[in-house]
Amino acid sequence: MTSLNGIHHLPQHVAIIMDGNNRFAKKMHLAQGAGHKEGKNTLDPVVERCRELGVQALTVFAFSSENWNRPQPEVDLLMHLLEQTVHEQIPRMIKFEIALRFIGERSRLPLHLQELLNTAEQQTAHFKQMTLTIAISYGGMWDIADSAKRIAQDVLDHKITVDQINPALFGQYIHLGDLPPVDLLIRTGGDYRISNFLLWQSAYAELYFTKTLWPEFLVEELNQAFKVFAQRERRFGKTSEQIQQEKTEK
């Protein structure tokens, strides 16, 4: 793994809430919707840096379940930009050998966009360098409820019993359950909340909040987030003394 100024303790799974596009447009006196177009271009260098450093998974929040409540012209623009992004990402994923995945309520998306997502996943599924997941029409509460529904169906079908249900089993049903849990969750734009994003997967994630608006988020700040992460003591319920003892034993 490529070091980051001598830092080798890097997250396996990074999640990003890409917030601040509209505020960037207002700040720069751009036309409505122009912030989303600018924000689309921010993703590529972030993906490349994560792959370079050996991050296993990067999951980004592109469109939430709640975003359907935005003005229809903005929703239409976002759907168009998402389609454009997927078309652009497929050859990039092939070039960098990255698996491209999507999570969310696909049934709410236009049919042609649903088909495009399926095609992108099929064409890149065999790549192992990294997994890039784009959350579209996604909400953490929907994710948990959908997993619970599938567990309930498997109980009814006698595939599992109620007594077998525990956090480990539930984690097998949750979306992205085959990937490492989120280690580092980054939110741009200055708000201090996770906005219904990857609630289960981020249970023990380190949080990094920045006032930087997403279109202005550069690789240099991603590096800074990684440095902050490397300085955090991740105890997972244990004491600092236990963690230090485990490091000594290793």
Automatic annotation (TrEMBL):
- Supply the Pfam families for this chain: Prenyltransf (PF01255)
Query: Which positions in this protein are listed as binding Mg(2+)?
Result: D19, E206
Alphabetically, which GO biological process terms does the record hold? Answer: cell wall organization; peptidoglycan biosynthetic process; polyprenol biosynthetic process; regulation of cell shape
Source species, domain of life: Bacteria
Instruction: List the catalytic activities from the record.
Output: 8 isopentenyl diphosphate + (2E,6E)-farnesyl diphosphate = di-trans,octa-cis-undecaprenyl diphosphate + 8 diphosphate
What molecular function does GO assign, one term? magnesium ion binding
Positions that bind substrate: 20-24, 36, 64-66, 68, 70, 187, 193-195
The reply on keyword Cell wall biogenesis/degradation is: yes
- EC number(s) given by UniProt: 2.5.1.31
Mind telling me which InterPro entries this protein's record contains?
UPP_synth-like (IPR001441), UPP_synth-like_CS (IPR018520), UPP_synth-like_sf (IPR036424)
Q: Extract the Gene3D superfamilies matched here.
A: Decaprenyl diphosphate synthase-like
Give the protein's biological function: Catalyzes the sequential condensation of isopentenyl diphosphate (IPP) with (2E,6E)-farnesyl diphosphate (E,E-FPP) to yield (2Z,6Z,10Z,14Z,18Z,22Z,26Z,30Z,34E,38E)-undecaprenyl diphosphate (di-trans,octa-cis-UPP). UPP is the precursor of glycosyl carrier lipid in the biosynthesis of bacterial cell wall polysaccharide components such as peptidoglycan and lipopolysaccharide.
What name is this protein filed under? Answer: Ditrans,polycis-undecaprenyl-diphosphate synthase ((2E,6E)-farnesyl-diphosphate specific)
Its taxonomic path starts at:
Bacteria, Pseudomonadati, Pseudomonadota, Gammaproteobacteria, Moraxellales
Gene (UniProt):
uppS
